[in-house]
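pasting for the record
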Amino acid sequence: MKIANDIENKLFDELKTTQFSLQLDETTLRNNKALILAYIRYVNTSHEVIEEYLFAKQLEVDNKGSTVYEAVEQFFKQKEIPLSNIIARATDGAPSMVERHRGFIAYLKREVLSIFTIHCVIYRQLLAAKHLSDRLHSTLQAVIKTVDKIKAHSLNVLIFC
């Protein structure tokens, strides 16, 4: 356990002085509990692109943009990582993330004015395909499974967002 804590603390110390991108995924579990997963990607001092799991938090109240922002902000304050070190943010385009005035990104932009936002469009296309045709829906499901399988191997992580 001590080794895991040392590795975690080393990551947090590095993030205190390093710019990074933040990828968030909000999901609802079977018991109707909201969960947020956070990953970061940055270039270390050896010029290697590093991608790390940052945290998973169960949202106590709901999955609104303000609730997601408060969970992320609380984590960063607790670890003493400045929000200003976030230079880019990626999500799947869920309304709680991208809504113009009350989405997560709206709250984050109040703190980090020049943040670059990226939307992973493949998941949005899957949602749209559910309402178009069974053939398109099943095709996009196969594409998503393939992308997820490729992304599961660390050497392939840079192929997709």
